[in-house]
Task: inverse folding
């Protein structure tokens, strides 16, 4: 992972978040507080749901749930604070606009170092997207406050409520079993790559199903279930999963691969090579 991005992500988010939080306390601005909460939520999502292959599934699930609870709490608090503050514009609105613009610039700074980097690597693409999302929060705050000052004061409160709701939605997305992100069906190329890996993979693997692509934070995850002929030892199961993930990753380098193992039993229907999609998600033979 690019070292500048690795250090820049937490540092810039911490600086911009503290700037917005300090502004909210001094000016008593609900929108600045909501922006700080949303930026914190975006950082939590990036840390708890990272696009990396070397991760412990249990630890990642626990981190995602903890981040989801924190995001839901922050979002709820900021929405309540926005309604409590009312629809009037704070007297120091100019400082709020300046703080939002400064936060946006701070979050954009690391992108200059990443401009010449190979952004085809998922982890770098994820960092770029996270920084852009955080910068968009600061820019939206600045624009919203300026519109509130010169057009309609209630816009500032609307921005605060919107930030809080987005933070809540981030929490809901993180709490989902598969994590945050939108899902899509794998393309023919991706499916054929998985099929080829299964066909030439460990002998214990006899089929696969549910090849799903999930996009989150600028990276894309590929998840697939692999069917084992019979129960194997825990150490062997880890080896099979690692081998499958590594080989699929080599064939599809822009995807973060996750393989789940399932054991065949007599109750399962016969393997199907049909391309039809059924609610039971039939197994496919390589």
Result:
């Amino acid at each position: 992972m690019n070292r500048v991005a690795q250090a820049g992500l937490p540092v810039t988010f911490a600086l911009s978040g503290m700037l917005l939080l300090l502004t909210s306390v001094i000016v008593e601005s609900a929108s600045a507080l909501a922006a700080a909460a949303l930026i914190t939520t975006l950082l939590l999502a990036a840390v708890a749901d990272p696009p990396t292959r070397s991760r412990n599934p249990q630890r990642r699930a626990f981190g995602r749930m903890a981040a989801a609870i924190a995001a839901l709490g922050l979002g709820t608090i900021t929405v309540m604070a926005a309604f409590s503050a009312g629809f009037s514009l704070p007297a120091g609105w100019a400082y709020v606009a300046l703080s939002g613009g400064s936060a946006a610039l701070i979050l954009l700074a690391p992108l200059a170092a990443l401009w010449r980097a190979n952004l085809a690597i998922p982890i770098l693409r994820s960092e770029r997207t996270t920084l852009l999302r955080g910068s968009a929060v600061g820019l939206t705050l600045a624009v919203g406050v300026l519109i509130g000052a010169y057009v309609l004061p209630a816009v500032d409160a609307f921005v605060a409520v919107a930030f809080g709701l987005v933070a809540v939605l981030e929490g809901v997305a993180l709490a989902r079993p598969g994590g945050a992100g939108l899902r899509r069906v794998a393309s023919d190329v991706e499916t054929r790559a998985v099929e080829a890996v299964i066909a030439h993979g460990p002998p214990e693997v006899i089929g696969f199903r549910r090849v799903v692509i999930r996009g989150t934070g600028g990276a894309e995850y590929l998840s697939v279930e692999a069917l084992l002929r019979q129960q194997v030892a825990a150490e062997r199961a880890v080896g099979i999963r690692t081998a499958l993930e590594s080989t699929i990753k080599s064939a599809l380098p822009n995807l973060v691969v996750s393989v789940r193992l399932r054991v065949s039993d007599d109750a399962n229907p016969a393997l199907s090579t049909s391309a039809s999609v059924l609610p039971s998600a039939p197994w496919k033979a390589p």
Notes: The longest strand covers residues 205-216. The beta strands are 182-185, 205-216, 219-228, 255-263. The chain has a mean pLDDT of 82.
